[in-house]
Design a protein that fits this description.
single chain; 1014 residues; mainly alpha; two-stranded antiparallel sheet; 41 helices; 11 strands
């Protein structure tokens, strides 16, 4: 029995502590259900096969040398259908384990929050006792949270943070200033790292809902002293049915998703979780603040906001057209209007106050009279029914306006109807979320004047402030060369330059661009006799203006330039914005924010120089300030133009993915760290604030990992209450699928921003430490590039021993896997499939290679003293601790034994010797890095200091290894078929489609088991 196998290894690998009994019970339940479903659907033979495959692995997931031959023989002898069923079964197992862990994490957060609140109550009672009796009492909260005892999980929450700030005597005025500018932005991207179908995500949600119902049922019957109940048995039966239906559902995407499909998948999290969860985030902050700093005003409700790239990110995705972007904005508005309509209908049920028993102010009565004149049909329909219920009558008018707004939006979703936004102003609709909120505030004031409060109304007002009628801000992104090509095509056509634009020096380009930006004369002719790419770039800017006209400026203010290399890259976008009416050359005002994205290491190093040159340009500085009138320092007290608050703010994006692919993990993180400090210093003399935008991916190799630690590791003085972070792919599912998990992740991110802004460590500015890090980063970069870019056999090795060719055939994104078609080298390959392929083959190379060499080289200089120094860094320096912790986590997921199996089985016979040398080099660096990490952390084995993460990794290791063997077998068969097809003679019982399907199913399964793709 697989369940017995799991139970027998529990104590050996110590994956459960005494406090994890609930998790153990749930794991037993889902594994029992999983096994039952497989037996019913496929027979005992499959269950026996899976048991046999799992028994060949040690609890840590390793295969001993003795049975290794037998497992190869066993898997190679499987029929294709048997192999596919085994792969699907393991994939389903990992998905179920993931659901249970997420459910456990959510439940754990609820219990921790409850315990923290109880301790806070006890502290308040003790303080009251001290005030009354003069006794000292016991500070339970400080012992529990600050003293490092059992309740460590409370760290990173509001109820942990504000007592800490009070204990450390942080001035309330300083806290107040920070809260007033608190600005946290989380941006959902369309990057193809989400391998799970939307259909499967919905099934996962249903199972999570059933598990929550099972919790409640069990608590109820245990509370009554019973051992079981019919309700719990019924829920377990429903779980069995859901898993059985899941088994009969195809895990693979049936078609390549369109951009609008991706919009639907991404915005699903708002519909299901975030719209309803976000009001609670603000309530939690206010509650914790009131308990500790009662005189401090809480931040505005929109201190944490969301953005989206889905439908706006056209970098390398030819399917994101202006029409698609328009339809995306309409889709977003439709979704939030549907949420509002549901909420208004619920309020109509709640707000039943009668004029017989409650007073109503004159302003509400006046409003109803105006509504009567504007919408007599609503009055005729509801006047008698609601003649004594003014709130319900008011809500009937509000509901009708929302319906009219929705109907108009659906009409405008057709791109051919866009001209209507200019030609007509319909009546009895809401033109903005502010108008809707004003009417809700009117009801709220009337309720308060009569001593009533309605939480449902408060939540709806909050949602109106947070989401408006746009749901999220839609960011635009395009690669810098597209703008250069467009400007060159226009300039060459007009013949206004002495030689082609592309041949000008950077200085000449800047001079010409500034001149064009200072004139009102249009540059682009009405009729555009240009190629399709040029026209599309121009139309994109015009679409941005259309969107701002219809949806308000707030719908899209951010325009990101990926691969920013020079000042001219920014000015080119500003010139295109001028041509679209988004920049006024006379006043130097603009309704967009241009965000340069620095991605490669070279670009990160040059970023301060580029930004300083931009800030020196009066027209650019004026555009940031709100116009030339606001550039005068003597007028700093003036309010900035309302469409671009706050003024004097420059947003800059730093990219983790390409910098990592370019120079390795340690060098990438250090260059980003340095760039942030340098950019902050550049901005200060110009009286500019920075909002740093972190392009983090899901995996460690692309900047991923726990957000709380990552934010605390940012350089002191660079956050100042502001941060912007991308959220990608499977990260969305792991953070935002369940309400309590979503709230916890948002709360920890907010806490980290406040904590990092007020309690910076100061260690980032110690010059000798920086010099040591510079040495380590340089050494790591050299080691990384010597393998990745300089080793003659590495590219062939990568293309052969990882499933990169097959990953590119997954239908998981509308965007191509490479930036440009043509030559298949590392420079054109996107960072996501690069990381994805190394994760599948269990190398996880991008997240650690080179670190061991750098650390060892440093230790060899002064072994004893330098080891003490690195341990001190790990203890005191948040940046260094974050780096080491991420490397440690990644190393714990590496399995060189299975990775070597990929090398031996997938290499052509003539390549085995040279590929073996590459593997040996990787293996040496792995063991070197492990030794260095353990020396610094002073732990006997990886993750020894993080029991929860260790449990999570070890829980999967014993099952993911046979899935890796299955993948290798299926990849080998598929590639053999391909080689035979090329030779013209095919000796295979199965088609290429069947073989590819099997290989892709194993990719799904391993992604679920690793809880990570790209």
């Amino acid at each position: 029995m697989l369940l017995e196998s799991l139970q027998s290894t529990v104590e050996e690998i110590n994956i459960f502590s005494t406090s994890d009994l609930f998790l153990r019970q749930r794991l037993k339940l889902v594994e029992s259900l999983w096994e039952s479903v497989l037996k019913a659907e496929c027979g005992q033979e499959l269950v026996d096969l899976l048991e046999k495959l799992r028994k060949i692995c040690s609890p840590e997931g390793q295969v001993t040398d003795k049975p290794k031959t037998s497992v190869n023989e066993l898997i190679e002898g499987l029929e294709l259908n048997e192999a596919i069923r085994a792969a699907r079964a393991f994939a389903l197992y990992f998905q179920l384990i993931n659901i249970v862990e997420q459910h456990y994490e959510q439940r754990d957060q609820q219990l921790n929050r409850r315990a923290t609140y109880q301790e806070s109550e006890k502290k308040r009672e003790n303080n009251q006792a001290k005030d009354t009796n003069g006794s000292e009492g016991t500070d339970l909260l400080e012992k529990a949270l600050v003293g490092g005892t059992e309740n460590q999980a409370a760290g990173g929450t509001f109820h942990w943070l504000f007592p800490q700030l009070k204990k450390l005597n942080v001035p309330p005025q300083q806290i107040q200033r920070l809260l007033e500018q608190l600005d946290i932005r989380l941006v959902f991207t369309a990057h193809p790292t989400e391998i799970v179908r939307h259909t499967i995500r919905l099934k996962q949600r249903r199972i999570a809902t059933l598990l929550r119902r099972l919790d409640l049922a069990e608590e109820a019957f245990r509370g009554m002293g019973l051992n079981s109940s019919w309700e719990a048995e019924s829920i377990i039966e429903q779980l069995n049915e859901e898993i059985r239906l899941w088994w009969r559902t195809d895990e693979l995407h049936q078609f390549k998703p369109s951009v609008l499909d991706e919009v639907d998948y991404t915005l699903h999290y708002f519909d299901e979780v975030l719209c309803d969860a976000l009001p609670q985030l603000s309530q939690r902050l206010q509650q914790a603040l009131k308990e500790n700093f009662s005189k401090i005003q809480p931040p505005r409700s929109t201190f944490c906001r969301f953005g989206s790239w889905v439908g706006g990110d056209r970098d390398g995705n030819p399917f994101v057209t202006p029409d698609v972007t328009w339809r995306t904005a309409c889709y977003q508005r439709n979704l939030i209007l549907k949420k509002y309509l549901t909420a208004v209908k619920d309020l109509t049920e709640i707000l039943s106050s009668s004029l017989h028993w409650s007073n109503v102010s004159q302003d509400l009565l006046d409003s109803l009279e105006r509504d009567h004149v504007a919408m007599p049909e609503i009055y005729e329909e509801f006047a008698i029914r609601y003649r004594q219920e003014p709130y319900r009558l008011k809500l009937a008018y509000i509901q009708k306006r929302l319906e009219n707004t929705r109907d108009r939006n659906n009409y405008l979703a057709n791109p051919e109807q866009r001209q209507i936004i200019i030609e007509e102003t319909p009546e009895n609709i809401y033109h903005s979320g502010a108008e809707f909120e004003t009417e809700l505030q009117l009801i709220k004031r009337n309720l308060e004047e009569t001593g009533l409060k309605c939480q449902a109304l408060e939540n709806l007002i909050f949602q109106g402030q947070m989401f408006g009628f746009n749901l999220t801000q839609l960011d635009f992104r395009q690669e810098s060369s597209r703008h250069s090509e467009t400007i060159e095509a226009i300039a060459n056509y007009l013949n206004i330059l002495p030689r082609p634009y592309g041949e000008l020096s950077e200085e000449e380009k800047v001079r010409w661009l500034v001149g064009e930006l200072e004139t009102r004369r249009p540059l682009i002719p009405m009729e555009m006799p240009f190629d399709e790419r040029t026209i599309e770039t121009v139309e994109t800017m015009r679409m941005l203006r259309y969107l701002q006209q219809e949806f308000g400026v707030e719908i899209c203010q951010t325009y990101i330039i990926s691969m920013t290399n020079d000042v001219s890259d920014v000015l080119e976008v500003l010139l295109l914005a001028k041509e679209a009416g988004l920049y006024d050359p006379g006043t130097s005002t603009t309704t967009i924010r241009i965000v340069p994205l620095f991605e490669t290491v070279d670009d990160l190093k040059r970023a301060p120089e580029i930004m300083d040159a931009l800030f020196k340009l009066p027209l650019y500085r004026a555009s940031l300030a709100g116009g030339y009138d606001y550039l005068d320092e003597s007028k700093t007290e003036q309010l900035p133009p309302p469409q671009l608050q706050p003024a004097n703010l420059q947003e800059i994006m730093v990219g983790y993915s390409d910098s990592n692919k370019d120079s390795g993990f340690l060098s990438s993180n250090w260059e980003i760290h340095k760039a942030q400090k340098s950019l902050q210093k550049v901005a200060e003399p110009y009286n500019l604030d920075l909002r740093l935008f972190h392009g983090r991916g899901g995996s460690v190799g692309r900047g991923g990992g726990p957000a709380y630690a990552a934010i605390l590791a940012q350089p002191t003085g660079t956050i100042n209450g502001r941060i912007k972070i991308t959220e990608q792919g499977e990260v969305l599912a792991s953070k935002y699928s369940l309400p309590e998990l979503a709230l916890y992740n948002l709360e920890t991110a907010t806490t980290a921003v406040i904590q990092a802004s007020l309690l910076g460590s100061g260690f980032d500015d110690i010059v000798p430490w920086n010099e040591i890090m510079e040495e380590l980063a340089s050494s790591a970069r050299k080691a990384y590039r010597s393998l990745i870019y300089e080793h003659a056999d590495f590219l062939d090795f990568f293309l052969s021993v990882t499933p990169i060719p097959e990953i590119s055939q997954l239908q998981i994104s509308s965007r191509p896997a490479r930036r440009k078609s043509g030559k298949k080298d590392l420079s054109t390959l996107r960072a996501i499939p690069w990381v994805f392929s190394w994760t599948q083959s269990r190398f996880l190379l991008p997240a650690w290679y080179g670190v061991g060499t750098a650390l060892e080289s440093f230790l060899q200089q002064e072994p004893e003293e330098n080891l003490k120094l690195l341990r001190y860094f790990y203890l005191k320096w948040p940046f260094f601790k974050m780096v080491i912790s991420k490397v440690e986590m990644t190393l714990s997921k590496v399995d060189l034994q299975i990775a070597n199996h990929y090398v031996k089985e997938l290499s052509n016979p003539e390549d085995i010797e040279r590929f073996g040398k590459v593997f040996d080099r990787i293996s040496e660096e792995y063991y070197r890095t492990c030794n260095m990490i353990l020396s610094i952390t002073e732990q006997p084995k990886l993750l020894e200091g993080d029991a929860n993460l260790q449990r999570s990794v070890q829980l999967r290791n014993g099952t993911i290894v046979p899935l890796g063997f299955l993948q290798v077998s299926l990849l080998k068969r598929l590639r053999q078929y391909t080689r035979q097809a090329e030779s013209g003679v095919i000796h295979f019982r199965y088609s290429k489609e069947e073989l590819l399907r099997g290989a892709l199913l194993t990719i799904n399964g391993i992604a679920a088991g690793m809880r990570n793709t790209g």
